[in-house]
């Protein structure tokens, strides 16, 4: 499993190189979302508001909201609507209530048409008001009791006044004390009446009021068809991106020279460049981990993979700009020189290329051509091993016997094969009696654009003439 951090540049490279595949999967996800919107008909939601006069605490409002969408109220709504095939159990999912600011209970009803949604919410509001009134009673007895108390207080206060006036108007101690006690009693009765009016729950909490009929909805309730289409496309897009990132992170393919050499049990000999040419480098489909590689197939399947951009790996670095041909040939000569240093002699040397690796096959051909053109060190005809290119199937690797060659060098592109596949190639070499003398990594490069004739003439044109003094020195 790769431990490299997934960076935004990596995600960007994935989206750019797999843009055709991602676009196709996004379209498929959008079609799936559209199909889901067809299977599930649109829904509409209407909301009715009920005002609770007086002072209410937050928990009391939550209790009222729970009562509004309780099974008892919903069953009464279903009985009042009397819709065919619809009972209270089905309506419980379609009726909801919540407490809003300003002592308002909002009751929402959801149905398949705007008219049914409006009727449902209005009927739910009416049934809630009726049920709440039934819980608190009709309010007649509660309203009569405080009124009777107030009338009793008025009559008692009037009687106290009459008693005070009928008391002996003299200034004796007994008369003054009697009038004082009667006045205190009348004042206490008036204060009690005032407190009774302030604390009257029926006066503070009058009957619940429905704020008119619910407005008929003019749009679908979420998720709408557009939301399902966009959500399906986005879900498929993100799933494809995450899936490919996960697969690349769990890949067991060595990409560096030390990792590749360790998988083969040999030493790295260097890296060579292969110019990208669409006519020559027809990449075979990249095999999955644990799957046999497939050779390039000119059939419709290969054309489809090439059309979707699946014929090349996305997790390899972008090919860098190539230098000139002289620099590339210098790399091949250095690799050949290292081969001569490790295996002097004139016996043939096998160059093993994984089947289907077009970049490695091109690099092996260049390396063999370099070995044939390289001047031998010392006397002519000595110290130069001949190279023979052989393609090896990593699914069932087979290498010619030792009597045809004295060793093997493996040429492959970075990250194209797993550790297990490379270990299988090394075991095949050992069975055939060959020593893996080294590994060469081949990387594609972008050739420089050809220079136009005008640029060539400009480069070849002489510079500005330099004036010289009488002694021939430039000025």
TrEMBL record:
Keyword Transmembrane tagged: yes
Residue ranges, annotated region (Disordered): 249-301, 445-475
Spans traversing the lipid bilayer: 21-40
Residue stretches of biased makeup (Low complexity): 259-271
Signal peptide region: none
Keywords: Membrane, Transmembrane, Transmembrane helix
Biased composition (Basic and acidic residues): 276-294, 466-475
Name of the protein: Polysaccharide biosynthesis protein
Native organism: Streptomyces chumphonensis
